[in-house]
């Protein structure tokens, strides 16, 4: 018999209150009104000691609350705009490691997805290994053999994991609402929005067909990158709950002794990792956001093989230009230029005291760059930089927070391969060339062209959008202007948009004089027509 949903939710909330109380956070549970008489009693009767630091207490609590909360903690570990750095670093230790699903359930998921037996006569596979080679909270991986003899790896989503995650997301939403209500001084953290971001991310991981699409795109993007590849996706054996790829035989990239014993050049592998990271971030703007060593292998030929594309990051060209300019400025130790890059990108307000911001960047960067070459960490630099966001009202950039998490892992991988090398020094020539191409005169002209094209496209579409809006209002019986006024209004809006686009283009190219005056006249005429027609 299945218990009512409300009863199950209250039991789960009581467990959360108990775990908070037994991990040094009784005050938090009480303030959230989570069974606080019970919490007081539990706290009073506790006798064992807890870790002294808050980060360790939160990590242990999340580990006890289960897979959804572990993944939530992993996401929070990137949010140094929300958490103290020491807590964020502690949460990076969270491991998504759970017991494997019973094989009967694995079989049920596959047979339900493909409507045929797993093995045997008319079966999907010639052979399927019952013991998984890897198990995580959302899915686990089994080796198998197709009927044509090909060796494959089959990732199978846990049965009913979607229902479990939705139930936990409902609990997290409730906790976020309570946090917003009873901690008004922390409303700037936007707890409900953070939960919604997490919900979008974890739901994306549930769709293994989407992961297959990510893998396919990476394979296309990396086809010209020497020494790097992605396993082939077998689409006929892939479903929302099942992902089948070619089986990879290789050595995890962090096992240096095995790599050297197999005759691989670890310094060359380190250079390939630098090239891989640079290419996906700057050239493609589409990077693997879960590049821990367990997802990077080296095969017999020495090629780097990426797996597990459940989480990806995307960077638009504006963000890539900012990132390249910022990295190059830091690598040259030009802190004034780095501050200017932030201002030009619009990541800090236009009225920011540039000198004070430069001093803040110098304060966090100099200690890092004074270390030996192999210990210089751009990921740590970004982490510290995000910590000054509140002081300078720097806008939070979620895509950069995800990138910073990936940087930490990549730097660790590079140090394992070659402890005296630095991935950023290896990538510096690549970054310099990219900056020359995309941020030099030709790149600026291209950026202006892209902006102008976007503005003009919006201008061309505006009259149709405006006409549709008026038509909808008319159909709903709303008050409308007479037909001549409507056309005047449309013309005014079009002239305003066109004049604004022209002014933006002229300003981007530092052009002044008669052309700028003409653009201003068009803008002003449009404004007058709009006001008189409304």
UniProtKB/TrEMBL annotation:
InterPro entries: ABC1_dom (IPR004147), Kinase-like_dom_sf (IPR011009), Prot_kinase_dom (IPR000719), UbiB (IPR010232), UbiB_bact (IPR045308), UbiB_kinase (IPR050154). Keywords: ATP-binding, Cell inner membrane, Cell membrane, Kinase, Membrane, Nucleotide-binding, Transferase, Transmembrane, Transmembrane helix, Ubiquinone biosynthesis. One of its GO terms (biological process) is ubiquinone biosynthetic process. GO terms for molecular function: ATP binding; protein kinase activity. Residues 92-431 form the Protein kinase domain. CDD domains: UbiB. Pathway: Cofactor biosynthesis; ubiquinone biosynthesis [regulation]. Belongs to the protein kinase superfamily. ADCK protein kinase family. NCBIfam families: UbiB. PANTHER family: CHAPERONE-ACTIVITY OF BC1 COMPLEX CABC1 -RELATED, PROTEIN ACTIVITY OF BC1 COMPLEX KINASE 7, CHLOROPLASTIC. This is Predicted unusual protein kinase.
């Amino acid at each position: 018999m299945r218990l009512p949903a409300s009863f199950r939710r209250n039991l789960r909330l009581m467990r959360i209150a108990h775990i908070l109380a037994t991990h040094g956070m009784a005050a938090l549970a009480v303030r959230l009104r989570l069974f606080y008489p019970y919490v007081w009693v539990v706290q009073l009767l506790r006798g064992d000691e807890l870790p002294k630091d808050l980060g360790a207490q939160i990590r242990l609590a999340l580990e006890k609350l289960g897979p959804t909360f572990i993944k939530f903690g992993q996401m929070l570990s990137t949010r140094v705009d929300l958490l103290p750095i020491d807590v964020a670093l502690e949460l990076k230790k969270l491991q998504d490691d759970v017991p494997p699903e019973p094989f009967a359930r694995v079989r049920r998921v596959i047979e339900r997805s493909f409507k045929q037996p797993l093995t045997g006569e008319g079966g999907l596979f010639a052979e399927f290994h019952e013991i998984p080679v890897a198990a995580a909270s959302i899915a686990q991986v089994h080796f198998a053999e197709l009927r044509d003899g090909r060796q494959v790896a089959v990732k199978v989503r846990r049965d009913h994991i979607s229902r479990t995650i939705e139930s936990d997301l409902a609990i997290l939403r409730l906790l976020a609402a309570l946090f917003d209500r009873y901690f008004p001084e922390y409303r700037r953290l936007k707890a409900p929005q953070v939960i919604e971001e997490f919900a979008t991310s974890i739901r994306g991981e549930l769709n293994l067909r989407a992961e297959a699409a990510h893998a396919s795109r990476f394979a296309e993007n990396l086809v010209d990158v020497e020494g790097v590849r992605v396993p082939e996706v077998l689409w006929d054996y892939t479903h929302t709950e099942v992902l089948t790829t070619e089986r990879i035989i290789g050595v995890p990239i962090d096992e240096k002794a095995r790599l050297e014993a197999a005759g691989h050049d670890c310094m060359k592998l380190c250079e390939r990792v630098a090239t891989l990271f640079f290419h996906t971030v700057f050239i493609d703007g589409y990077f693997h956001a879960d590049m821990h060593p367990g997802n990077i292998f080296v095969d017999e030929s020495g090629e780097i093989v990426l797996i597990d594309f459940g989480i990806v990051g995307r960077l638009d060209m504006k963000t890539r230009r900012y990132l390249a300019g910022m990295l190059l400025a830091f690598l040259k130790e030009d802190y004034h230029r780095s501050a200017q890059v932030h201002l030009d990108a619009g990541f800090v307000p236009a009225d920011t005291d540039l000198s004070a911001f430069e001093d803040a960047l110098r304060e966090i960067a100099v200690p890092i760059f004074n270390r030996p070459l192999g210990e210089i960490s751009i990921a740590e630099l970004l982490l510290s930089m995000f910590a000054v966001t509140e002081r300078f009202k720097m806008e939070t950039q979620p895509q950069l927070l995800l990138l910073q998490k990936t940087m930490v892992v990549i730097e660790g991988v590079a140090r394992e391969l070659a402890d005296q090398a630095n991935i950023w020094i290896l990538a510096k020539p690549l970054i310099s060339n990219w900056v020359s191409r995309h941020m030099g005169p030709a790149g600026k002209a291209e950026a202006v062209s892209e902006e102008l094209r976007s503005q003009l496209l919006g201008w061309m579409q505006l009259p149709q959008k405006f006409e549709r809006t008026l038509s909808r209002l008319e159909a709903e019986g709303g008050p409308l202007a007479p037909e001549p006024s409507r056309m005047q209004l449309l013309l005014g809006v079009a002239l305003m948009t066109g004049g604004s686009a022209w002014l933006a283009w002229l300003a981007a190219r530092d052009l002044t004089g008669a052309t700028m005056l003409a653009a201003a006249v068009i803008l002003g005429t449009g404004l007058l027509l709009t006001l008189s027609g409304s």
